[in-house]
């Protein structure tokens, strides 16, 4: 019988369990709507479905308290608790929220993604930036690795999202080097005068010190009158080549170098204009025969005819502004000041600064002796040094001297024409008889197989012997 008490205890415990089970059966249950575990991108505000209270599988009304510690702006694991109070007994459910960063950082290269480089050049990093939606500026986390001609930029954010970009280096050089000659590209030497090489310089986009690699070919025999060429050639490391030529003309100073240039070509040249009366007449005749000529102008006459000369395809060249021998031949500075004045006049009218010039009285004039001894020797050298080219003539029409009739001008000209040399004819577009003789001269030239041309920078100049 002493076991009776034990049986009672066991029975009571059993009964209590049954009662509890029945109670639990009657207890309401909390049910989450939606997933119990959810991932949310950082910075994205999000609302979650709630929870419901059920008893015997049926929804019942009830107040559910939600407790949440979710911070949408910070990566991490959070909980939302749903609490329903059944009397004094709380019934709970928990939802787990993970705020995550799954976005890759943005890598931006400074400079081009494909870079063209000289074959031997070192690539200097042009820079980059890396930004992440969560970590902000992570440029200092970028890893740069190089493999042959590729540069890899890699960056990972704190959530291990990775971005990689590749920069490609393309090595090529298609640009030619450039040779620049020092001194003149065309120069005149007197017979037996020594040729002095003034040198050259080379610029290249990829190679340095190419100046030492220039090869020069071409011989000059200054003991013989003639036209010689020196050829300067250079190649860069990629084989791009440049060639430049210098023309050296060896002439005999004791002889008039007046038989030069293109044989059988007539250069009609008109000095001292323009002139309101006769320049338009001359231009009309030239136009009628489509013949181009050269006008050595001064400050005289209307601008409109300089404009017309240019527009109709003639060469506008410079005589001097004043044509006053005392002003132009008293000093070198005086000459150039006068010349620049007329150059500026022409520039204002046609937008070109001519460099083709003719000395008043020609380079052989002796009148200049009255103002400065030896000035023509200096000026003939000095004009070329300053980038001008001077032209004399080898046929004088006599129109400014003794000849005053159209017939006389015509006869003077045609009697001197030559098929062996170029024919540079001195005329003046301020003379009536010249304007009247021109048509016959042109007709004669055309009939007899001459060619009319205007003087250009390429025209080999006729030079008279200098006498002062
Ligand atoms: Zn003149």
Question: Keyphrases for this structure?
Answer:
single chain, 468 residues, alpha/beta, Immunoglobulin-like, 4 domains, six-stranded parallel β-sheet, four-stranded mixed β-sheet, binds zinc ion
How would you explain this protein's 3D organization?
By secondary structure, the chain is of the alpha/beta class. The protein has 4 domains: 28-100, Immunoglobulin-like, CATH 2.60.40; 106-171, Immunoglobulin-like; 178-251, Immunoglobulins (Immunoglobulin-like), CATH 2.60.40.10; 265-452, TIM Barrel (Alpha-Beta Barrel). It contains 8 helices and 28 strands. The protein has helices at 4-26, 279-288, 303-311, 325-329, 332-350, 375-385, 406-416, 432-447, and strands at residues 29-32, 37-41, 51-55, 58-60, 64-68, 76-86, 89-100, 106-109, 114-117, 128-132, 136-137, 143-147, 150-156, 162-171, 178-181, 186-190, 200-203, 215-217, 226-235, 241-251, 265-271, 294-297, 315-318, 356-357, 389-390, 395-396, 423-428, 451-452. The strands form 8 sheets. Strands 21, 22, 23, 26, 27 and 28 form a 6-stranded parallel beta sheet that branches. Helix 2 (279-288) runs parallel beside helix 8 (432-447) and helix 7 (406-416) runs parallel beside helix 8. The longest helix has 23 residues, at 4-26. It binds zinc ion. Zinc ion binds next to loops.
């Amino acid at each position: 019988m002493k076991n009776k008490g034990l049986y009672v205890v066991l029975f009571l415990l059993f009964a209590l369990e049954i009662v509890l089970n029945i109670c639990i059966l009657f207890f309401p249950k909390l049910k989450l709507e939606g997933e119990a575990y959810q991932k949310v991108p950082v910075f994205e505000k999000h609302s979650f479905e709630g929870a419901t209270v059920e008893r015997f599988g049926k929804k019942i009304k009830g107040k559910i308290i939600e407790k949440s510690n979710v911070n949408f702006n910070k990566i991490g694991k959070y909980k939302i608790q749903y609490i329903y109070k059944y009397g004094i007994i709380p019934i709970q459910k928990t939802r787990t929220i993970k705020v995550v960063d799954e976005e890759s950082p943005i890598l931006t290269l400074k400079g081009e993604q494909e870079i063209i480089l000289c074959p031997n050049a070192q690539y200097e990093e042009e820079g980059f930036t890396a930004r992440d939606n969560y970590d902000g500026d992570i440029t200092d986390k970028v890893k740069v690795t190089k493999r042959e001609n590729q540069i890899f930029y890699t960056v990972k954010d704190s959530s291990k999202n990775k971005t990689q970009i590749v920069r490609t280096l393309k090595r090529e050089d298609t640009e030619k080097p450039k040779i620049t000659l020092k001194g003149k590209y065309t120069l005149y030497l007197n017979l037996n005068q020594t040729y002095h090489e003034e040198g050259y310089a080379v610029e290249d986009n990829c190679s340095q010190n190419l100046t030492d690699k220039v090869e020069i070919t071409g011989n000059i025999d200054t003991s013989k009158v003639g036209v010689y060429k020196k050829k300067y050639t250079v190649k860069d490391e990629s084989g791009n080549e440049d060639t430049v030529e210098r023309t050296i003309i060896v002439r005999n100073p004791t002889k008039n170098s007046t038989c030069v240039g293109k044989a059988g070509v007539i250069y009609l040249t008109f000095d001292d204009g323009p002139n309101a009366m006769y320049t338009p007449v001359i231009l009309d005749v030239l136009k009628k025969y489509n013949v181009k000529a050269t006008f050595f102008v001064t400050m005289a006459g209307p601008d409109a005819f300089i404009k017309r000369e240019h527009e109709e395809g003639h060469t506008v060249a410079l005589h001097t502004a004043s044509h006053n021998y005392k002003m132009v031949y008293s000093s070198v500075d005086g000459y150039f000041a006068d010349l620049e004045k007329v150059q500026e006049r022409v520039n204002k009218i046609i937008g070109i600064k001519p460099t083709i010039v003719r000395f008043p009285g020609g380079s052989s004039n002796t009148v200049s002796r009255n103002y400065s001894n030896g000035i023509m020797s200096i000026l003939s050298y000095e004009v070329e040094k300053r980038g001008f080219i001077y032209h004399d003539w080898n046929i004088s029409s006599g129109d400014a001297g003794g000849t005053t009739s159209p017939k006389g001008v015509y006869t003077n000209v045609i009697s001197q024409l030559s098929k062996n040399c170029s024919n540079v004819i001195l005329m003046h577009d301020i003379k009536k008889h010249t304007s009247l003789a021109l048509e016959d001269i042109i007709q004669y030239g055309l009939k007899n197989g001459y060619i009319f041309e205007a003087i250009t920078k390429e025209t080999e100049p006729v030079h008279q012997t200098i006498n002062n």
